[in-house]
Amino acid sequence: MFNLPNMLSFLRLLLVPVFLVLLAQGEDAWALVVLSISSFSDWLDGFLARRWNQITRLGQLLDPAADRLYIFAALIGLAWRDLVPWWIVLIVVGRDIFLLILGVILANFGFGPLPVHDLGKVATFCLFYALPMIMLGQAFPQLEWWSQPMGWAFALWGAFLYWWAGIVYAIEAMRVIRLPRVGPGVSSDTLE
């Protein structure tokens, strides 16, 4: 369903390659502008969807997809420029591959995706806070003395929470798979 919140999410997706190109070319200030616009539209699409009762399945798919793509783009762009180590990229991408496999397993048992857990939201917030802070120090070297330690503190905490949330999702998936079947399958409340 096309509505304003979904169009904002789609706009965020379209800005991902713009963000990545700016970041890869070292245009950190402009990349931060694009990231700021995207972050605001992320907040706005969720606010409007709830306010106008326009929460849709499409929006529930687009919003986390855009979040993941921005995190991946920021990590890959920063790692490409040797500003973050590749191991942190592998930690974050590895967790999402793990959850993708978990989703396939759930689907094979007739279940939909698990509802988003607050721990996962906190982990994503930490990464969304960390990566711009790291970029800020690159764009404005006079701010590096505080933006780098803050960015790295949130990046490491976010990566830890990201995997912790992944483990929580795995435990929840095992619990759901073991539930007795009462029909054609139980679906998640996330994608209703």
Automatic annotation (TrEMBL):
- PROSITE patterns in the record, alphabetically? CDP_ALCOHOL_P_TRANSF
Pfam families in the record: CDP-OH_P_transf
Q: Which residue ranges does UniProt annotate as crossing the membrane?
A: 86-110, 122-140, 152-171
Its annotated compartments are: Membrane
List this protein's GO terms for biological process.
glycerophospholipid biosynthetic process
The terms describing its cellular component in GO are: membrane
A GO MF term: CDP-diacylglycerol-glycerol-3-phosphate 3-phosphatidyltransferase activity
Keywords of this protein's UniProt record, alphabetized? Answer: Lipid biosynthesis, Lipid metabolism, Membrane, Phospholipid biosynthesis, Phospholipid metabolism, Transferase, Transmembrane, Transmembrane helix
In terms of superkingdom, the source organism counts as: Bacteria
Q: Give the record's membrane topology.
A: Multi-pass membrane protein
Q: What is its main location?
A: membrane
According to its UniProt record, which protein family does this protein belong to?
Answer: Belongs to the CDP-alcohol phosphatidyltransferase class-I family.
Tell me what this protein is called: CDP-alcohol phosphatidyltransferase family protein
Give the species this sequence originates from: Cryobacterium serini
